[in-house]
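Trying the structure run again after the queue cleared.
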Amino acid sequence: MIVLRSLSRFSFRTPSGSQRSPFSGAHRFHRVGLFLLLVLLAPLCSPVLFAQKDSSGTLRGKVIDNQDAPLPGATISIRHALKGITRSTSAQANGSFLFRALPIGAYEVRVTMDGFETLVKDRVVISLGSAAVLEAVLVPQTLEHSEQLVVTASTIKSFDLTNTTSGLVIDTRKTEELPVRTNHNAVALLAPSTTQGDSDFGNGNLVSFGGASVGENGYYLNGLNITDIRKGIGAIRYPWEAVDQVQVKTGGTPAEFGRHIGGVVNMVTKSGTNEFQFGVRTVWDPRDLAARNPTTFWPDAEGNEQLIINNSEDTEEWQDYNVFASGPIVKDKAFFYILANPRRYKDSWADTSTFYTRDQEGDFWLAKLDWYITESHSIELLGFNNELETTRQSFAYDFDSGSGDAHGNTYFKTGGDVWTAKYNWHVNDTLSVSAMYGQVNYVNNQSPDSPELAAYWDSRSGTWVRLGDWVAASINTKDDQRTNFRVDVDWVVGNHGFRFGYDDEDLDIEDLTTPTGDGYYEYYRAEEDNPYGLAPGTDYVDRRVFIRGGNTGTTSSSIYIHDTWSISPSLTLNLGLRNTTFKNTTSDGATYVDIDNQIAPRVGISWDPQGEGRMKLYTSYGRFFMPISPNTNVRMASGELDEHFISYLLDVNPDGSPVLGDLIQHDIVSNGQVPDSDRLFNGEAGPMYSDEYVVGYEQQLESGWRVGARVTYRDLVQSIEDISINYGLNDWIAANYPDAPLVGGWFPLLTNPGSDVSIPYDVDGDGVKEDVFISADDLGFPESSRKYYSLEMSAEGRVGDSLLVSGSYTWAHSYGNTEGLLRSDNDQSDPGWTTSFDYPELMDHGYGDLPNDRRHQLKLYGSYRLPANFTLGFNGYAMSGRPLNSFGVHPGTDCEGDCYGRIWYGAVSFFTDGEPVPRGSAGRTPWVTNLDLNLGYRLNVGRGAISLKAEVYNVMNTQKATQLEEYGEFDSGANQPYYGQPTDWQNPRSVRFSFRYEF
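Done. Tokens:
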């Protein structure tokens, strides 16, 4: 939402805030104990079962004789090659066996049965969140055979027929051979159909899954939810060196995952083994070898050149150090992994009037402990710290003469402690239980060294010019906490593999935002048809005072069940169900959103037509629910004072402060009081959810190549947005209480756009709230819509002995009238709180191609082993452009006299020059191509090895525009002379060097 005019130009204009959950302290631990008891007793009382997060792997298979007859009772024993931990089980009546919750890595598998030769299979690799499938063939002792036959009489199936989830699993050691940035988003972008998000939300590195916005994904580390707490945009920081494997789920996500409707990035950390290991690694991005994006001058309406995008001062240098050690505490029983990760980052940049330098320092660390107490009981402990301290210094700046006098410093502190504890109990061959408790703490504080100075910006020349010596416009203190508890059970009953569980998540949000000085000043020169009726050319100033503070909370709890039903050796049916409750509270502690019984079915079918484990046809359906963002609590349900003082501007003092004339208008957007909890959420509204349908095919060819194809359809059935109901409410009051006063201005409400509205409201001021009902037709909002279709084709294999290649092509179409929680086309990152649906007129002609609609994407990456221990890695892509708009002022021709205020949001409507320009119809950004290369060298030295690597990102330094100016008009309605010009480009060429030594 924005009020009166577009406020998205500056980040402090969309601040966030919050409140503590009522479910904390003793209440939380009572719930933990209660549900732990219930879940532990559940297998003894009821066949209704729940599930577990994918922070480990699975080994499943079948034991048969040489006549294909099952061998029930056969003993299958496994031993982790590096940890020495062992597990054993017996084959079921149909010969099947299953090991769940296995630490990732290579295992030795031994199969024995009286009257048969022992079968041994080395290096059965267990990967994160997936299953290895082993068909073990035992040879009777009475037959003649060779030792070679005994050892190799088994087959690792190419595909896990029980899995209908799409995506990829990649080992971070593999990424060392690829020119891939060291973060999970860069890895996720290797997966077919994933798309780069808007650069304003994270330097083009955030990920859109299936047309969803980049704020609708889930991120997990060792089963703990590490998604950004407040807005859900990406994940919190952590030491990347500690990550062992990454699993990217792009479709068919099972029932144990929730709170997302985009995709899932699931990771697991490294851990210790029976071998002591020590290592160091450093990464350096030298600033002198990096290129810059263009600096652009555009002519204004009079033809004068104006500096608009200044990249001439851009520099950055990144240094990342890692020292790590791991090994046994007790051989075969207890292991440790520790990492120290100091990092340093320096950069500089300039806009039209200010030069900035930034220094970031963080001493990250991580520790992991695994204790396998017995074969049945184990404990995992994980802790890390990601605090980062930043100093940003600003200077006066002129493009021709460079930086001048220093204004001062702004100090930032972000991050905090993260920890989790998990207990695993393998009760018997068919039943296992795990329980996890974890916490994520994250602060985000900003404080300038001159808090007494107000912020001044002058836009009278047509461009924004910073005035004065101020260094920050606000003082922010944000302290967020996520507490996550879950219990999970696995239970095998005949041909059914049940997974079931309960998980609970509490988000506690603290926020305090105050302005520097006496507010934020913007200087304007009135255009024709300005909102204050001023004569064109009149100078005026808008002083904004924004103060917010409070604690808010969000809680959610879920139970879920998943049944993997092996109907036959070549046919599997996955049936899942998830039931979730979401609650959001105001800063007064009152619940304003309480949505329960969010039933999310998940169904998948997988079939191997040939029965050889080399082909899989599969289909899946899933429903996914999205909670209301804690950021919405802050923006809507906390005490917020937002005032605008509009005055004549007589002159500007040398320090940038205004010489004020008479007050023109005083606007109170919010008065600082916490709104009543029962007037914030529509009583007729339901949750935000999306449906997904997938049909896919995979096959392993005789040549060893693996190929696949997948068709996906996603439908955002229902979203939750903030709307204003003041006009519909006033119509209802006039019709039912003609003597009652009408409401003035903005009256926000969370709802499903296009639905009826029902709220209690004291219409006549007698202290008793009336039941207000306004029909969807009277409100006039369209229903929200986002649809996504895609066809994806992929291939992976070897060319000769040295070249490994993975590639994919995706055709996709994303269209509708909402991107989802965020809005890329005008850079709004407040989830569910954008200009979309604020008033019905803002959605006129708002149906069309959406910002994440990349119609074509081609990806190709791999590595080539060169002589003398050298490796060449490559990663390239080509993607078509995103849709463009031409935003302008709504002409108001459909309104009846008094609607000027409800559509005067400035240039945010799908009109230009009074004519409709439907969403996404103003062309597209150009195709973007990119090629990254690296050259690695490995040298064995004594017990260890040295690895050297040089990487070049964007080798050809292609710098196609990724964003163009989409405002065809200024807020005044005057034509925007810079419309259609580039405002952002793909990242320019940069170079990275890394050194690793480990033994």
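The chain has two domains: 11-26+276-769+785-998, 47-156. Worth checking whether this holds up in the mutant runs.
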